[in-house]
Amino acid sequence: MTAPHDRPSRGRPARRRRLARTLRPLLALALAAAGLTALPAAPAGARDGAPVAPLAALAANPYERGPAPTVASIEATRGPFAIAQTTVAASAVSGFRGGTIYYPTSTAEGTFGAVAVSPGFTASQSSVAWLGPRLASQGFVVITIDTLSVYDQPASRGTQLLAALDYLTATSAVRTRIDRNRLAVMGHSMGGGGSLSAANTRPTLQAAIPLTGWHTVKNWSSVRVPTLVVGAENDTVAPVSSHSEPFYTSLPATLDKAYLELNAASHSAPTSPNVTVAKYSISWLKRFVDDDTRYEQFLCPAPRGSAIEEYRDTCPHS
User: Fold this and answer.
1) pTM score, two decimals?
2) Would you state the pLDDT for residue 61?
3) Neighbouring C-alpha atoms within 13 Å toward the C-beta of 47
């Protein structure tokens, strides 16, 4: 594990902390005027069963979504949000070949961050479809995409991931549910390489997660997006020694980054429901897309377990 360092300064989280400092005294004054000593919790029972965040939590971090997490909640096949999905026809978009959007049905807690997910070489969105409901039910809008050609290389897949995010935030039917400043990319294999390309192209992204990524480019020292690199110990298509490990080590030492190697897993491990991939992807997205420090406990100190061959990071993130 690499030596810890202070979390690098990032503009938006800093603005959130300033906002929280501004709101707290105002809330205290309002409470005093009302004769209260503590903020009352907002009632549960939001539309579709989604819980409403207490006012105090909203003041501290307006982007927290859902109840306090537990190991059980991030390992569960479904999170606290009821979800729906809609198909995006290839003929309705440009820059990628359509896909499927998964989204929370309730807007009681406000807007959500969004994640675009790309499949790998020769694959369709069905290979990463399990991530759609898994992530959306935790409080994200997710689009799994089909690429223009199943043979598209990683750089093209990165461009298509960004096109999908642009579609989500600008013209999709769910655009009003999305905070366009809280966006992330994921992908498997060449789609994972594409997520690195997308992060390098658009440093305003809040997170990137390449899953057993493949890319001919090994140096990503110019990436400024918090990145979780997921490799697989027995990957013979994109061996960690020539892909995931050099990807991780080339990322700046001052960047929020982590390397998770799946124990005894193959290249295709992220293409079917995988608890380890899900729980740490959820934690990473929550921590950096939503700036939700409640999920830091699952990332720092470095997690251990029989499913993890190796984990490296630059803790602490806060």
Assistant:
1) 0.83
2) 86
3) 8
